[in-house]
What does this fold into?
Amino acid sequence: MNDSFGLEGRTYIVTGGAQGVGRALAEFGLERGANIMLVDINAKVLEQTKAEIDNPNLECAAANVAVEAEVDTVVTDTFARFGDLHGLVNNAGIVRAAMAHEMTLEDWQQVIDVNLTGAFLCLRAVGRALIEKAEKGDPAPGRIANISSDAGRRGTIGQINYGAAKSGVLGLTMSAAREWARHNITVNSICYGVVETPMTDTIRNERFRDRYLAQIPLRRFATPAEVAPATWFFLTDAASYVTGQHLSVDGGFHIAT
It folds into this structure.
């Protein structure tokens, strides 16, 4: 595979893309010639990001992934802007930290709505479009990468809502992979550890920082730029025979005792 990673001219939706990991994911794809529809609920930051990246292959859509109609509109707008769609990076997520016995139902539901239901709505909308293309004889494969977390594989302390949602994303991934393989659509998930982003500032700066670092064999947190390549692997032809899999990109956190 050349340096384009096989992405040149292909179109992908990237959710949760205004900053942090989402922005790094978008930049990786754009640098290799992909068209990107960048989605985020924060319209102001999204427009700032678009201006800073300044790439003609980038389009932005302010949308809440937990709202069905807004997700469906994003897919429609992607076809209107780029004329095609090849895949999805399902990255949008939020945190609402609290111990289980202190967590409010509102905080539980907000995280489930965005991190799990939102992931489902995006996967479903993109999957429908990819299946329709396949049924019309389009030979181009469909590729979906769901961003999960090691919190969904090992559990987590102080974020039971987040752990439950990300565990659900793993089940979502495997079920969709089974259902859509016959349409030449692959679905995989990537389990990040702690990545240096605005969303993880609280984790990285409070008393849990040293405990987290002690469990990471590489003894550091990831940067958004270094988790992007492993994520994009699942959207390339190099991963054409890989589906229903979960890849931990976490500095070895998942193997630590």
About this structure: Residues 11-245 form a domain with the Rossmann fold fold (CATH 3.40.50.720). DSSP finds nine helices and seven strands in the chain. The mean pLDDT is 92. Strands lie at 11-15, 35-40, 58-62, 87-90, 142-149, 185-192, 246-249.
